[in-house]
Amino acid sequence: MEITDETWEIIKNNDKNFDNKLWYGVATTKIFCRPSCVSRLPKRENVSIFQAAEQALEEGYRPCKRCRPMDKIIPNEVWVEEIDLLLKNHYDEDLSLEELGQRLHGSSSYLRHIYKKIKGLTPQQELTRIRLEQARIRLLKGNEAISEIARDVGMMNTPYFIKSFKKRYGLAPNQYRKAYNINSKK
């Protein structure tokens, strides 16, 4: 269903009078909510309107953990899978715990607690692991500047990137490149 100006105002104003009358989904997160949900307002172009919660489910959306549009609790394992997917697909972005909580419609402290309980590490540790792995792959493929690789994988502080890389892989990025990059041995 197309979003009208009236429906957009209902969502913008978190109008609880329309709870259980309409639901909205956010294409970028594949999460659906009640109009009264206090999560960050999505971009209008990413919003779809549903006449029933089941319709949102059929289209591949999952219920929001914050507003629980189906009055059911979402299993934490499902939430952790979504966190992993978000980290994997957006590792190059600024993803603080607060940002993860906003995007995945949950409390940042609860998100961290559940993630660590299930995975044994924090979301930020997993994000750093993903970023360093992406940097390692780029070091093996080309001759880009270390600072450029660091920036492109979401680590703006190059000295911190170098220190983290060395801690994980046992060599500084330049040493790693010299040791393993086929292109650097020519």
CATH topology of the largest domain: DNA Methylphosphotriester Repair Domain
For the largest sheet, list the strands in their spatial order.
3-1-2-4
Helical amount among residues, as a percent range?
40-55%
Terminal Cα separation, in Å?
Answer: 58 Å
In sequence order, what are the helices and strands, one letter per element?
A: HEEEHEHHHHHHH
Please count the beta strands (DSSP E, at least 2 residues each): 4
Mean pLDDT metric: 90
The description of the largest β-sheet is: 4 strands, mixed
> CATH superfamily name of the largest domain?
DNA Methylphosphotriester Repair Domain
Low-confidence sequence ranges: none
Residue share in β-strands: 5-15%
Structural class: alpha+beta
Structural account:
- The structure is a single chain.
- With 186 residues, the chain is α+β, with helices and mostly antiparallel strands.
- It folds into three domains: 5-63, DNA Methylphosphotriester Repair Domain; 76-124, no CATH class; 127-185, Homeodomain-like (Arc Repressor Mutant, subunit A).
- 50% of the residues lie in helices and 7% in strands.
- The chain is built from nine helices and four strands.
- Strands 3-1-2-4 form a four-stranded mixed sheet.
- Helix 3 crosses helix 5 and helix 3 packs parallel to helix 6.
- The longest helix has 19 residues, at 123-141.
- The radius of gyration is 20 Å and the shape is elongated.
- It starts with a helix and ends in a 6-residue tail after the last helix.
